[in-house]
């Protein structure tokens, strides 16, 4: 029996723009890769938290290009 499904995509954004990786050791004494923010894409709409649940067309969230 075949199951039909729906494509769900997770968009991950580095809010630091790469600076967390470069500067975290000198500022915090601990290396961190990024400051992450995520959005979930369903049916061409991206949902994310920004002072409440927000929705925008996929790929147009204000956090840049998803990694």
From TrEMBL:
Gene3D superfamilies given in the database record: PPPDE domains
InterPro entries: PPPDE_dom, PPPDE_sf
Entry annotated with the keyword Protease: yes
Family: Belongs to the DeSI family.
Name of the protein in its database record: PPPDE putative peptidase domain-containing protein
Molecular function per GO: peptidase activity
Keywords: Hydrolase, Protease
Biological processes, Gene Ontology terms: proteolysis
Superkingdom, taxonomy of origin: Eukaryota
Pfam families hit by this protein: Peptidase_C97
Domain PPPDE: 6-67
